[in-house]
Recover the amino acids of this structure.
């Protein structure tokens, strides 16, 4: 009997050409919520190694105002 | 020799010539500190995610350079003291990540300004909408004049008859006025 697994595959492990950089803020937008919070890796399926790179890139993008630190939920 | 890149935001009020002066000034200050600029990429004007110095928009410029020792620290101090630069971020890169940009700063600035003009079709529409009614008004006024002249010509005869009536009415009024004056004189 085959074991069915619901484990998601990390998109950055699959596609090695895809680099995680603060300049690619459009890609990083997929990994933050509407409020501007970083989404955990177990929800997006990103592995722990790439999640660390993602966190760093998001924080750098916030620093230079490419991404928001926080968004008021009343202004969605 | 290490490779670095600095992304900095220029004040949105700076455009064309003044923007070029600032970019060239930043490069000059980098040269004085012992760095060598490798590539300059203009991202253009875009909306900030949060306000910086009460500004909603900013012009992003990416500068890639190489240097050693305290080059980045001194460069950061220079950027910090420049009032036209809202924010900056310096990161280390590898030699492979250096961009190959053939366009000059002038061509990039002119290209971005054209894009900005293309992105504002709303203003153009407003202008066209504003112009169109005026033209129509002018045309309609002209047409009105022509029509009114035609109407005047056609209704001259009718107007004459009405004028006659008006003269008669005026005569009656003058008679009444004369009567009133006479009564006033009598009272005196």
């Amino acid at each position: 009997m085959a074991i069915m697994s619901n484990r998601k595959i990390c998109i950055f492990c699959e596609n090695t050409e895809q680099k995680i950089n603060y300049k690619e803020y459009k890609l990083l937008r997929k990994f933050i919520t509407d409020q501007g919070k970083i989404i955990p890796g177990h929800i997006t399926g990103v592995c722990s190694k790439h999640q660390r790179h993602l966190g760093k890139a998001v924080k750098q993008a916030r620093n230079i105002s490419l991404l928001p630190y926080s968004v008021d939920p009343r202004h969605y | 020799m290490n490779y670095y890149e600095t992304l900095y935001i220029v004040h949105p009020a700076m455009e064309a010539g003044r923007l070029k002066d600032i970019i060239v000034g930043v490069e000059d200050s980098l040269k004085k500190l012992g760095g060598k600029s490798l590539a300059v990429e203009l991202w253009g004007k875009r909306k900030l995610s949060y306000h910086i110095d009460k500004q909603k928009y900013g012009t992003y410029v990416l500068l890639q350079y190489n240097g050693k020792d305290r080059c980045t620290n001194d460069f950061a101090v220079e950027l910090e003291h420049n009032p036209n630069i809202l924010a900056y971020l310096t990161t280390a890169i590898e030699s492979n990540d250096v961009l190959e940009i053939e366009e000059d700063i002038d061509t990039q600035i002119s290209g971005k300004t054209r894009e900005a003009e293309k992105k504002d079709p709303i203003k153009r529409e407003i202008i066209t909408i504003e112009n169109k009614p005026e033209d129509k008004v002018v045309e309609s006024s002209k047409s009105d004049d022509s029509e009114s002249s035609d109407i005047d010509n056609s209704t001259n005869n009718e107007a004459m008859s009405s004028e006659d009536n008006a003269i008669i009415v005026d005569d009656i009024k003058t008679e009444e006025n004369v009567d009133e004056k006479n009564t006033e004189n009598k009272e005196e």
Remarks:
- Chain B is about 55% helix and 25% strand.
